Amino acid sequence: MATVLPPPSKRQRTAVAEKAKEQQEIESIPNNLGSIRVQFVDQGTGQSSGAPVSIPVADATARNLELLLNTLQRNDPSERIPYRFTYHADPSDLSKAVDISNDLYHSLLKPGLKTTEDSITLQYTPQAVFRVRAVSRCSSSIPGHGEAILATSFSPRSSSKLATGSGDSTARIFDCDTGTPLHTLKGHTSWVLVVSWSPDDSTVATGSMDNTVRLWDPKTGEALGTPLKGHSKWVTSLAWEPYHLQTPGRPRLASSSKDSTVRIWDVVSKRIESVLSGHKGSVSCVRWGGTGRIYTSSHDKSVKVWDANKGTLIHTLSSHAHWVNHLALSTDFVLRTAYHDHTGETPETQEGRIKKARERFEKAATINNEIVERLVTASDDFTIFLWEPSSSTKPLARLMGHQKQVNYVTFSPDGLHIASAGWDNHVKLWNARDGKFIATLRGHVGPVYMTCFSPDSRLLVSGSKDCTLKVWDVRTGKLKEDLPGHKDEVYAVDWSPDGTKVGSGGKDKAVRIWCH
Amino acid sequence: MPQNEYIERFQKQHGRRLDYEERVRKRTARESHKVSKDSQHLTGLRAKLYQKKRHHEKIQMKKRIRQTEESNVKSSGPSEPSSTPLPQYLLDRSQPTNAKALSSAIKNKRNEKAAKFSVPLPKVKGISEEEMFKVVKTGKKTAKKGWKRMITKPTFVGPDFTRRPVKYERFIRPMGLRYKKAHVTHPELKVTVQLPIISVKKNPQNPMYTQLGVLTKGTIIEVNVSELGMVTAGGKVVWGRWAQVTNNPEMDGCLNAVLLV
C-alpha cells in the first residue's frame, strides 16, 4: 500500500498561503497609475541622453527601460547593450542610491521615494555586452604536479594558457584547449607561492618560498635570465606595472614579501629599482594601480599607498584592528588584461595597445567624470573596509557581517560588486558603490579560500576547503552550479579573462579545467 | 578581625626586625623539608586537605612548566613552516590539527583493494559465553528456569532504548556498563577526540553480540565525526565514520578506539 502523506498542518497551510500572497504581490503592478517622466543620464560622464521621456508605470520594467534607452541611443538592434539603472536621491550622497532591480514601481514608487507627479532622473551604466555561461563540468583533470597546487592564473589574452605554481617547487604552463601540460618551469628551490602573467602576455613571473622571483617566457618555457634576489623572506604577492604606464620595453614588477618590504624590479635589467619599506609586518598583498600608485596591505594592520615612480609613501590607511589579509582594486580586471578585451582583437602597434589599455582603464575607473580607483581590504578583524585613497584617508565604508576572518576580497570587473570570502564558510556580496550588504551566498561547508568573478560580472566562482567549487549568480545570489570533483581542498581558482574556462588547483595535486 | 593595616603601619614607622631577611631566607630554604614532613605525617582530615592543596599546586606547576617549555623553543627558522605545501594566505596561520588529512588519507587507502578490509586489530582473543553472560538466578521463577542472562561486558544501547518488560527481557544490559562516547584516535594525525558513538557495526566474537551492542576489544563501532569537519569529495559533511575498539573497556572503564583509515 502506498504511503499517504498526512494533510498539512495549519501552520504549514498559512505559511504556504502567505508565500503565495507575497509572490503574487511582487508580480503585479497596478495599471491605473498613468505614466511617469524619466530622464536618462550616463553615470560615467553625467550627460543626459536627450529630453525626458514619459513612460507608462505599468510597463516601466528594467527590461523595457533598457529597450527604450537602446532606441534613444540609436544602437543597432542586433547589438543591444544591457544597461543597469540607478536612481540617486542626492547626487552628493552615494549611499542613497537605489538600483532598479525589477521595475520602477517596486523600486521607487511603492517605497514612496518618488510619485508619478515627479520627473525621475535615472543613471545608466552599460553592462558587459557579452555573456559568460556558467561552467558546469570538468573538461580535464591534468596530473603532473608532485605536490599541492598553490596558485593558478590564466593568461590575460585567452583561456588557452594557464600557469600554476605548486609545492613541488615548479611552475607549469598548461594548454587548456587540449588539456595537456605545455612547459615545466623548473628553477625554484622551494614552493611556488604566486604566479602572475604580465599584462601583455609575454612574461610569467613566479614568486617562491625560496625568497626569489623568477621570470619565464610562456612560449618556450625558458627562464628569462637569473632570479631576482633581494628579499630575505618568502614572496607573498606580485603585481605588474599597468600596461599603459609602462615605459615601452621596460616593464616593472612589484613583489611583496614576508620580510615586510615591497621591491620594485626592473624586469629587463633584473635590478631593484626601489625598495618600499615602512611596513612593520609581513606584507600580505600588493597591487599596482592604474594611476601610478602602489597599494600594499600588511599584517601590521595598515594599508599603505606609495608613489610608484618616486618610491615614496603617500598615505597610510589605518583603520583595521588586525592583520590585513588581502586587498583589491576596482580596476584589477582591466589592469590585468590591459588591451585584451572580449573581442579578441589586439591593436597592431605599440602605441595603439597603450592607447587601448589606457582607454579601457579610464572607462573602468570613471565615476562621475573623475578617474577614481577604489580599494577594498579584507582583514582578520572580521571586517572589510572600502577606501577611496585619492580623496580621503578615511574609509568610505566599513563592511561588517562576516563572523570569522575574511581572507579574500575581490571587485567585479564592472566595479559594481564586491565579493568577500573567509573562514566562516560564506561568500558575501556587497555593493561597491557604498559598501551596502547585498547577499550572503551560503552553501560551502568549509572555509572559502578564493573567489573569482566571471569577466561579465554576472557570475562568481568560489573555491573552498570542502573540496568543491561553486558557481553563483550574482544578481539573484543563488547557487548556479555545484562543481564537486577535487579530491581535497581547493587552494586556487581563476576564471579566464575571456570567460570560457575556470582553472582550479588544490591539495589533490591535479589541475582541473572547468567549462560549460 | 584587624581593623586597619596595622602591621604595615608599624613596619613603616619602626622598620623590620634586623634579622628579617635572614629568617625569610632560612624559611624558604627549609620549605621543602616542611612540605615533605607534612605530607608524610599528617593524618585524617588535615592530610586530605593538604593533599588536595598539593595536588592543585602540582597541576599548576606542570602547566607553567609546559608553558615555559613551549615559549623556550628556539626554532632555527625553517624555510618551510610545515611539511605540506600551503598557499600564501595560510602560511602564517596556526593550523588547527585538521581532520582534513583524514579524508584524503582514507581515500588513498581505499584505492588499494587489499587494504579495504584490513583493520588495526585483525585478531582478538575469544570470549566464552560463560564469561560474557552471568546467569540471573534471583526471583522464584527465573531461578527455576534459568534463562535470564546479564551481560558482564560494556555495551552500547541506542539513545531511544527502553528495557523490555521483566518477563520478556532475556538479556540485561546493566546501566553502569553502558557507553555513549569513545575516545577516538586518528592514526596519522595522532590526535584523540571524544566522539559520540552512533552504533555498533560488528563484534568479532559473535554476531549476536553485534546485535546486543557489546563493546569488547576489536569491536567495530561507528562514531559521529561531524565535529572534525571532514568533507566528502562532493562537498558534504561526513558525520559517521568507523572505528575499532583497541582496549578492553571492561578492564579500563573507558573506551578507546582508533579510526579506520
Can you walk me through this structure?
- By secondary structure, chain A is mostly beta strands.
- In chain A, the strands form 10 sheets. A 5-stranded mixed sheet of chain A has the order 2-1-5-3-4, covered by helices on one side.
- In chain A, a hairpin with a 3-residue loop joins strand 16 and strand 17 (261-266).
- The longest helix of chain A has 18 residues, at 10-27.
- Chain A is globular.
- Mean pLDDT of chain B is 83; it is low at 97-103.
- In chain B, a hairpin with a 4-residue loop joins strand 4 and strand 5.
- The N and C termini of chain B lie far apart (66 Å).
- Chain B is of the alpha+beta class and 261 residues long.
- Helices cover 35% and strands 16% of the residues of chain B.
- Chain B has a 5-stranded mixed β-barrel with strand order 4-5-6-7-8. Chain B has a 3-stranded mixed sheet with strand order 1-2-3.
- Chain B has helices at 6-14, 20-41, 44-72, 100-111, 129-132, 140-145, 207-212, 249-252, and strands spanning 133-135, 149-151, 171-172, 181-186, 191-202, 220-224, 240-245, 256-259.
- Classes of the chains: A mainly beta (516), B alpha+beta (261).
- The A-B interface holds A 147-148, 150-151, 166-168, 190-191, 193-194, 209-210, 234, 236-237, 258, 282, 284, 299, 325-326, 407-408, 444-446, 449, 464-468, 470, 482, 484-489, 491-492, 507-508 and B 79-80, 84-89, 91-92, 100, 103-104, 107, 229, 231-237.
